[in-house]
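re the bet — no i am not wrong, look at it urself. input seq straight from the record:
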Amino acid sequence: MILIGLTGGIGSGKSTVSSLLAKHGAVIIDADAITRELQAPGAPLLTVLAERFGAHILDTEGGLIREELAKIAFSDPDALKDLNKIVHPAVAKEMDRRMTEVRDTDKVVVLDIPLLAENPRKGLCGVVVVDVPVDVAVSRLTEFRGMKEDDARSRIAKQASREERLKIADQVIDNSGDLSTLSTQVDAVWAWAAQLPPAVHDAGSREGDESATDKS
């Protein structure tokens, strides 16, 4: 496989880029989508979250009230650390499993990870960063997700900065324009990715996690 890391800050439109790459034939392993699957009603992870953050983060049908959990986590650094300690290992394990399924293929596999700059992965063939100015991200979050501006800026501030993400980039997609301009850039990134050498055998394992070598 050819293993590509895809990242971008909240409100950057990374999911749109991921969808366009999938249309080209990329296998997408989406950390956010996996997180949602692991937090579906009845999932064991929800029990752990409710024990830490309180039963009020669940609705009457046992589903996660994401806004309630986010309100707690993003207002308390210790709560955010605990949330990450609970969720990240479970998500990483499932991502590792999905990588194993396609490791011996010739496919372009995209690890769609919002916090890739904060939590690097080893052996990636390349890293693509979806970049927009902070004000553009804030505008999109308030318009399309209904966030208040202060909340949007707070969420952005808790992620890596634009500069930190750009430092790890092999390719940068500027998503401050229209969909046509974005599609043209994604086409170019696909052509670049498809000609890269295959990943090494332990590619995709988390940096500093030697135990992940055999399974990721």
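see?? The CA atoms of residues 81 and 203 lie 26 Å apart. told u. also The chain has two domains: 1-26+107-198, 39-106. so pay up
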